[in-house]
């Protein structure tokens, strides 16, 4: 009787001991489920696991709780599901790239990775994590996913969500982002809600119908909004960009921008080819622009009541009549143009320019104002180049103000 009860106890203890051991390898390659099962006795895999491009069917790597290296699968057209009921941490990269038949990733205990890359996983429609609360870099590109709800990291370095055609909404717990947020070309009428985001380094937002950042206070670098579908942009608590630009280009439905607390833009300001935007009267507290200001559109009114310092050119052109606005802005032109010098670069303000919306380019003329090519649908590219060019205008501004 004693042996009958003791033997199962020893078996259970042996199982616990086996699963707590560390298996040290540089790289383990899994070519079948049978090979994946061999890892069941490892509590920690000290190294990298690579799933072969010849592995197929269902791969389950349950057993290990931690991988100190990477977990990778690339260029595989046979795997259908990838799962682990035990893995909670990957110290390196979790990479799934060009795995065309994979339809499910189920890592129900996974809460921490250094880097998550799901790229060209065109059949992937199920993604389940613990949820994932710790990740430095996240890249979700070219998938069949409809939800990212199991990704809830609060602090990320890079976050890229693009070309996920069935993904129509993302709500994230993100609070800070140290490098760049890129959102582009996802599902129809894509919505992104970042209710807790307070600080971000850079962001590029494109092809979005709703973008919500009610708590955002600081953009350390640049904020770019290209070819979106929203009619209103609101950042009620944004006070400044430290060093970069703010740009709105080619947002056809945009009628209003609300950034009531914005006082300083470290770089330049570009608003161009937003054809439904008729008034620039929403920068009521903006005092300083560290680069150039370039405005192109169908404006009837342009106002900057608090603007006291523009270190680059100030260049406005509208298809409509903004003569009254130009007269008011002229007072801040450089001294050699009859103003008080608040605008340190060349001042230009023109009405009734039929081609105003075409000029979203980046070239810098000898006068310090900006010109360039028409909008050919590649607003993101032109805006990116403009962001760099704005800083160059500061040098021109310094020369102009000295004359």
Automatic annotation (TrEMBL):
GO cellular component: cell surface; fungal-type cell wall; plasma membrane
Alphabetic keyword roster: Cell wall, Glycoprotein, Secreted, Signal
Feature: compositional bias, Low complexity: 359-368
Source taxon at top rank: Eukaryota
Bias type Polar residues, positions: 345-354
Region of interest called Disordered, as start-end residue ranges on this chain: 329-379
GO terms (BP aspect): fungal-type cell wall organization
InterPro entries: CWI-Assembly_Regulator (IPR051648), Rcpt_L-dom_sf (IPR036941)
Cellular compartments annotated: Secreted, Cell wall
Cleavable signal peptide: 1-18
Protein name: GPI-anchored cell wall organization protein Ecm33
Organismal lineage: Eukaryota, Fungi, Dikarya, Ascomycota, Pezizomycotina
